[in-house]
């Protein structure tokens, strides 16, 4: 006689069999990896792309000599770009603006958001050093007209000027504007704009490939147990979890 109470347990057994992961040994996995052929020239270009995009001028020059890989950009322009980035990071915004104009005036002429954010950062620096009257005058003359043309600009301007209403600006609701992260954010935006003006990608390819590796591993985890790379700094394979 067939017992209906057996049906759930049978279904569970079938489901377990269908969802069981394939186990790939380290030996099998390493063999598959060796079968993948990557040209050294392509790897060198990937490294050079990272050095150029991130602005490591000296390292890029040494790598060029040692590997024979030519950079995608003139290394002199990298030094100029890094000078702009350092100026913003140190709070010398006017110096950064002048350097950008010297490098390529069209960068600011064609990018109103970038120019506003640089001016906003300049206002933040005036507030940081307690130059209240100068900050108010600068906000009214330089930033207010732009705020009238763009609602987003106006909201950002209001948040920045609101810093003046607090004695302890660093602990006020808008205190994050005075954090180093705000300078870094603006510097990153300038760096990306300069790279774009030079017909170069604003982000290096290597980090994107590493993110893709993590995504692929996460997808593969659902179907197989295999030697995984958990530490991207060493790329060491770890034994599959069974």
UniProtKB/TrEMBL annotation:
A Pfam family assignment: LisH
InterPro entries: CRA_dom, CTLH/CRA, CTLH_C, LisH, Ubq-SigPath_Reg
Domain of life: Eukaryota
Domain CTLH, first and last residues per copy: 77-134
Protein name per Swiss-Prot or TrEMBL: CTLH domain-containing protein
Organism name: Dendrobium nobile (Orchid)
